[in-house]
Amino acid sequence: xxxxxxxxxxxxxxxxxxxxxxxxxxxxxxxxxxxxxxxxxxxxxxxxxxxxxxxxxxxxxxxxxxxxxxxxxxxxxxxxxxxxxxxxxxxxxxxxxxxxxxxxxxxxxxxxxxxxxxxxxxxxxxxxxxxxxxxxxxxxxxxxxxxxxxxxxxxxxxxxxxx
Length: 163
Prior knowledge:
By secondary structure, this protein is of the alpha+beta class.
């Protein structure tokens, strides 16, 4: 299982190699579909990432990723060469550390699954992906206007396992 920000960075950079436009809104939907495929494509029903997906007005959202990239609004997120990460030093002080993006965290087999999702869904405009997720029971059952409720991994698994 991976950290969702690592998966996001991979998706963004993979998108750039394929000339896909990946906005924050589109990235959120791609993460939802990646999680779904992971949940149904391995024997352990192992998720791609542990972080929760929430039901927001515009569909499924991973809050940590939303906040990381919200500065780009609806624009294409630029290729990630470096990123900042909050770290705690030996004195307990927090500081941001700049790190180089290294594409070795995600296994080749898992990249193949992620690539499959991105290749199939990145061609759609973000709002089309919103429409698609709004018709699916995991978002429908979790969504409550004005609230940010969790879309359970089990709900995602059951829905996509039945397709």
